[in-house]
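Quick question, first post here. What does this chain look like in 3D?
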Amino acid sequence: MFAYIVRRLLYAVPILIGVNLLTFILFFIVNTPEDMARAHLGDKYVTEEAVQNWIADKGYDGPMFFNNEAPGVEKLTDTVFYDKSVKLFAFDFGQSDDGRDISSDIVDRMGPSLALAIPSFLIGVWVNICVALMVLMFRGSRLDKTTVAVFVGLMSISYLFYIIVGQYFIAKVSKLVPVSGFNDGLDGWRFLILPVVISVLAGIGSGARLYRTLFIEVSGQDFSRTARAKGVSETGVLFHHILPNAMLPILTGIVVVIPMLFMGSLVMESFFSIPGLGSYMLDSIRAQDFSIVRAMVFLGSVLYITGLILTDISYTWADPRVRLS
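> Answer (accepted):
Ran it through. Tokens below.
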């Protein structure tokens, strides 16, 4: 088991290095510091002196990868690549373009993101599995066909539609919950009910349909037919044979998402004015704050790779034969 985890971690290292290098190339080679300066300052009425001052102020005016004039190891460390890219591996995100500490911002905004993402994720998974199991019990019936059609219809509806309708009827007209905002206090749940409900409802179509497909595939295998032939009830087959044996593909979609919960939701947090990492990322894009964007891209890569590693580990728990691969 230990060797399996180490092997997966070693696989992740070159991937993360490649992502970091590609991000640096996109931000500093394809999109030059001059381009970033003009995007931040504005293309109109900006002088070349202002551009150069902005580049020098952000530390983008040094050598990119190698500094011939520096002594010893500083030839590599006294470079833009080391200062803006390599330091990310130590989670030293530096400062934003307006002087704020990015690491402090991430820590402060992580709480609101998790407060929204965790209940949405847990309730969503539970509801999707329950709905899929219920539909499977009526497989082939008119209810099953109607439900599948409803799933496809729900998948076709834009995420924004759920948000707009929910905010108008539940928050504005019925006044059951606030339209938007966030509060860290005990009454903060009032601001999270609507976005959590919308997240769950918006995901039922795709989630329940996926789980239904997985359950149907497992229900047609030999062990399920053998259990029925031995007189096991359909409910017993469902919960003691189909559900446990469908855990491996279910873990694929569940475990890999868990680390990404820290990143929040761009759309949901923006529409409901929740000060999480999702809105933080979107606000930095709007403000052309490239330091924050680079930090969030790297953090997202780390979390996604962590999710993949956790998925591999969960495979060994669900199916020990995976350890031999």
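Residues 1 and 320 are 9 Å apart (CA to CA).
The chain has two domains: 2-90, 109-324.
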